[in-house]
Design the sequence.
């Protein structure tokens, strides 16, 4: 069985494992105040051109979203989010667990438009009985989105302008940020990200690390006492240097971007194949997640050799699935999949 | 500088790293439903003779305590705990963050007596206005305690009896459980633990793993939907197999107990030295944490070569510090420390 | 200016004030354990034929919803609710403040259908990765709904059957229950309510009392320790007898139903007038809330003499407003309003 | 039976009831934006000489404490409080329910000294691992305390200075503020209160009102969006004018202070009697709560005619009880009690 279900099937990039072994008996202080963390922070600030940012390392995505969002909001505030946003559907109510409503906005493609955000926020503050409703206190987007789609630079600029107009922070969930930046068509560069939001995170778990997410805070007002938040949410890893050295390895010499490229290359091969075979897709995705709609017969046949992530029923006879490539996808496996898709769709 | 500050200065036991490398390109399902997790659970149930228990893997201690405690309590209940308990002092209010009061009981040695627990619980339920107060809903103990002390089997039996009498679950924080079980004088064996509580966890972070804590639920009433709790608290590691394979390695062949023994051996050398040098201690500890009281001059001198964890001021001229050994402590380092303690205390 | 904006413009029914005065210097125990509360509970159980129920008195609606919902749900569970439900839109996230997601279902008329609830619940529990999502743990409906609509007995029976099939409690927010039971067309009688849900409340604030909501718990499993919940949510009124004596007065001799009838009579006059004048309505309401759609010119003209609750913009030139009658509505004021509506709509 | 158990046995001062009746059919807007609330706010600001303060009305004490404290603290912060503080012992964990730890300081007399607060706060911020602990974020005191004791002006000034030095707000729970200000020996005047804290509340429930507490915010930084907090905690009374008109009546012409005087007069009679009869007391109280220690025989005898609040067991044969007077205490009842105390203690 070959797994295309998600982008966290394997361990870590071999260079990270080497680093682990090489540093194993170093003695360092706990909780992320060691040299590896310091170096990793510098590499990240350099890679994203945000020299005044604060960088913190956490273990996983849900933990990171919860920690960040609860650090930004006042108790009576909620977070605006596309209805498909990870925090709205796949985190078992972790955000609500910190007392905050997720204010879900309708969305076809997983993105929030500047217009919709503006309208929602304006209409709240214009309401005479506003205090009876949850106040929008921040905007959450994922880039790439859960559907693999990407904001254009212009879309992001417009959205951020709306946020700034209303003094509402913008947070970018970058669980798959590497794959977004590596997309062929994107006009967003690493250095754009810190300029177009107040806080974001760089996903390690899905892009070459064993685990780990790097939170980057560019808005000074959001920096204070952030380590208290991490600790309170169980995210202050005792052996914090494990996070440091993974990000050190990923960002000291461009490894993060390089392995992201690989995933995109493999995904584009799949996409091209789907197009050639006339397979419809749920979202037109430029990233490592592809969402073909297969007839149930075809899906059954392919599922004998491959795992996909079931996404949703499209009709009585059709289902959308997610095919994920990653830094670890073997070219030969992509090749096999492509051939099999060709075979079954020609039937 | 040689670090004796805590038991998480180094990476992981080399066998764990080997396992990581060996399995790195295996493709497994995420979130802890892979074969490594399954095997690790079986090994643990065997090692602790608790074949009907549920086992779950989480990343860190604060996360585990928060997840377990919030899964057991009803909203208006609190958790009884020694005033020195980790959840009461060193988790940034993570328990309160889930809405629960920590009901701290006075304690000299970090332990709760059966009598004190009984009295507290009885007196609550006998109060006519009980509903104006937080209801005690579970008892939390750490074994070993934060001061390195241990419950005797008899003490634990009596405490558990009180809990059962009041239908209140007992939870054992075993962040350093290995070191407790490896102590020379303890009469508690691994198989006693599941019989004398409702839920406990086996610490990996401090005993040879990179990270990871194994929660063992023996009380059927506490098993339901526990994975929801883990996810909601950000503890469901995407690459869950990393937890599985570490515990697999630690428990397939007794490694966990073996390396715990090593830490105890090193700690006992330090303890013997302290006794011989007439150094007073804060707690008489049979485990890997030793708490000497040094004069500030001596402490200053030792601190040029060694790090300790500052514990508390004892008098104007004396301070208690924590000296930790661990699975990773090098015998030569213990030897150096002992010689230096001898040297400075003879001055 | 005559107020038709809501059903809580005035104080309380004169009989309640008389009772207040009559009992003012009685000395009673605090917190709701006095004789007035006891009597009121008996009257309520008799009026609703639920002799085994537990009855508790709280002060206001948001407080009651929060207390009830947080007493029923486990931390990782959420509450199913029509998207227009009060808890979803007008309680400043009080439910989320207790850690629970409101799982909003699309609804045109403010009601949840049995089918939709069934589908949502089934689909959650059938999902292999269910633990990544909030588990539906109870169903909340309001009767009458926020749009003045009513469940038929058959609809309620079907919905409750679905809840029972899934072992999920059904909670009825009866902030305006009196007006629902007094509707001309309803086939739901007081004694049906306790049989068709697990817990409900009888609104006093909007039906003749100064304040106060009576929670009725019919499902034994939900009764335990409820007073702890009330206290924890700040709802245990020190002078609890104030709640008791109001409900005593309302239910000792049918006053609650009688004054509800009055509000319905006045509302039906308004409704008939709207129909005769060809004014469209947002919802066809049999209760004390009517939702006409006026052109902005007409609305402006009427607003010189009357207040309404602005509901929503319907088109560039049309707005829906809420007209409320209540136990306190003076017939002469209804008459004036009707005449003025006739006048302006004939223009 | 004559009740001396608490200060909320009766309804409200007759003038308040008159006001209720007189205004009953006035139509006002809901939720505290009516004229009665406006007037009451002005009267309060005048009575306490705090013309720039914000005033809000809530229903009860626990609700008020919860709302205020959760509005001031950041999530990782806790509130410093005497171990006997109401929020620490008698609110069923409502504060923890909002995610915050109550940081209890030892106290003999229910008061916090400036020195203790200073030491606690300083020691937290000096700790290198401060982020592992709950950060002290505000100080809560009650005046009078739960034991009836009072801060002197000097004590309060010193405590507030410490708070200001550390930029930590001071909150005064004034559930019985009237009785504190009416004490014979106090050197604190109404106008001192707003100058010596950042936020406080004036208790109505225990001082002549049916219910109601008036929060006064003097620190501008704490004013923003307070109504959201009230609503979120279920404290925004629909018929808000009920709160307004009660405080209007209490503060338009000094009624609050006048009826507080009465309670103090009655309490001082009791105190004098206790002194004369050689009855020991738990606290030396200048306010309406007196805490005699009776032998169990005496207590039993008195309990045939009077109710007291059982406070605690003092020895095998002695118990401390609370005797409360209030605005409603009848002189004849005090007289009877005094005579009976004399009688039984002379036995």
Sequence:
């Amino acid at each position: 069985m070959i797994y295309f279900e998600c982008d966290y099937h394997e361990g870590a990039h071999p260079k990270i494992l080497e680093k682990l072994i090489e540093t194993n008996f170093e003695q360092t202080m706990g909780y992320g105040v060691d040299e590896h963390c310091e170096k990793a922070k510098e590499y990240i600030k350099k890679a994203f051109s945000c020299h005044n940012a604060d960088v913190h390392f956490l273990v996983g995505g849900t933990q990171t979203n919860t920690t960040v969002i609860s650090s930004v909001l006042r108790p009576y505030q909620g977070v605006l989010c596309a209805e498909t946003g990870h925090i709205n559907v796949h985190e078992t109510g972790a955000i609500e667990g910190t007392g905050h409503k997720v204010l879900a906005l309708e969305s076809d493609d997983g993105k929030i438009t500047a217009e919709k955000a503006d309208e929602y926020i304006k209409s709240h503050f214009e309401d005479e009985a506003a205090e009876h409703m949850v106040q929008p206190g921040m905007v959450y987007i994922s880039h790439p989105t859960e559907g693999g789609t990407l904001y254009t630079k212009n879309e992001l600029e417009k959205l951020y302008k709306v946020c700034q107009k209303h003094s509402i922070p913008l947070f970018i969930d970058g669980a798959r940020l590497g794959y977004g930046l590596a997309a062929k068509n994107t006009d967003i560069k690493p250095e754009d990200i810190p300029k177009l939001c107040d806080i974001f995170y760089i996903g390690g778990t899905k892009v070459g690390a064993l685990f780990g997410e790097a939170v980057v805070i560019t808005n000074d007002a959001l920096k204070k006492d952030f380590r208290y938040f991490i600790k309170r949410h169980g995210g202050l890893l005792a052996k914090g240097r494990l996070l440091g050295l993974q990000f050190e390895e990923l960002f000291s010499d461009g490894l993060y971007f390089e392995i992201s490229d690989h995933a995109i290359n493999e995904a584009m091969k799949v996409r091209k194949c789907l197009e050639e075979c006339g397979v419809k897709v749920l979202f037109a995705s430029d990233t490592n997640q592809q969402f073909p709609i297969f007839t149930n017969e075809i899906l059954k046949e392919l599922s004998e050799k491959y795992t996909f992530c079931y996404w949703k029923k499209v009709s009585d006879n059709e289902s959308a699935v997610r095919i994920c490539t990653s830094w670890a996808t073997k070219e030969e496996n992509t090749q096999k999949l492509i051939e099999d898709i060709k075979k079954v769709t020609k039937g």
About this structure: The longest helix of chain A spans residues 255-276. The interface with chain C takes residues 75-76, 78, 89-93, 96-102, 129, 131-134 of chain A (CB under 8 Å). The mean pLDDT of chain A is 97.
